Amino acid sequence: MTPDLQDLSAAASAGKGVRVRSLLARFQDVRTATEAWTELLEPGDFVLQSMPDASPTGWHLAHTTWFFEEFVLCGFAPGHERFHPRFQYLFNSYYETVGERVARHRRGMLSRPGIGVIREYRSSVTAAVSDLLMRLEGDELERALEVIEIGLQHEQQHQELMVTDLKHAFSINPMRPSIVDRPPRAEPRTIEGPTRAIIFIEHDEGLFTVGVNEGEDFTFDNEGPSHRVFLPAFGLADRLVTCGEWMEFMEAGGYDEPRHWLSAGWARRNSLEDRWTAPLYWENRDGEWWRFTVHGDAPVDPAEPVAHISYYEADAYARWRGLRLPTEFEWEVAAIQAGRDAALDGRFRESLRFEPGRASEPVEPAGGPARLRQLFGDAWEWTSSAYAAYPRYAPDTGALGEYNGKFMSGQFVLRGGSCATPESHIRSTYRNFFPADARWQFSGLRLARDSQN
């Protein structure tokens, strides 16, 4: 090999080493963060499943590990011997291409394997993936890096689900236990006193580019392809709707007035099984509203963003106010124009304070323009947009093509992340989605209106 080619080879090898080491460090960080959440749990906590939509914490720990074993080790390590031959059946979620699985509503019946074996499983797969990455070369390494990145993003999604699923299970316990202690307030953005009235930030009409193209920084396939949309002029509220503002809706009979509600929402609100009169986890005690949190019971703070509401409730509130929910493209365009750093003043999973925070005090100079706040973190924001494919969308090939595309029916898009979302996981193009009656996530709302200009 000539000296020039040797230099190029060494440079390529060094570049590979940097990329692999960087991903390995992130791999370890994400896996450790997942496990740290469980350190204070009792053995019985790991098998709790309080409703079909939720999953036990132990299952989450094992499923996120199965993802790496199934798609990384079995895909790129010939001859890999599975940790246990039945784990593919136990911990597959919804991948029809992979094979049969335990029905979702029966996951809470899996007392075995116990948490000790699940932790051994995690350690074994984490070590095997780390070893494999150091051995792969060329195109095979590139493909493996892509799949591992999807696995890390997937595990961060489950980090949030572990919080919301266990919160729902604990809320049913008459002891009202806390999962973790409430950390002291530390955010300089926290303010006391009355919440400032909402200000609408106006946006001109225009033709805008939304979504992302393949080859940019990691995104899920449902965030693209990039395409152009026309938006009429609109105004977007500078902050999230607060609990105090939601109480006004309740006191005005908002839950009892069908003219504010979509037909399906009104039927769901009046369900005999679970009749809605307030957000999930709220309870009236002698005329005072309390709520159950990850940190135990607490009085409702009127200045904090309302959360744990369905799309139906969010839409009814907006109609009651004579306003509306934003479309997902209005939200995305506004977020891009605001800039992620400018809007990144919400609370995230890393704070370990799993409740939406108060909006920051405006810092604009007197007479200066207002800005959007709480775009990222605190509470997911319902949009009026149905979860559907973008123009020219095609799901990924193989089993991983089942990740997003097959759910594009009967759901609505949420944007922005929540207090349980890892900060590194969220971005302006990220599309979360849930059915219209889902309430157990940290879901809130931001109001929008047609332009007043």
UniProtKB/TrEMBL annotation:
GO terms for biological process: ergothioneine biosynthetic process. Keywords: Iron, Oxidoreductase. Residues 27-162 form the DinB-like domain. GO terms for molecular function: oxidoreductase activity. Residues 204-449 form the Sulfatase-modifying factor enzyme-like domain. SUPFAM superfamilies: C-type lectin-like. It comes from Saltatorellus ferox. Pathway: Amino-acid biosynthesis; ergothioneine biosynthesis. The keyword Secreted does not apply. Coiled coil: none annotated. This is Iron(II)-dependent oxidoreductase EgtB. Its EC number is 1.8.-.-.
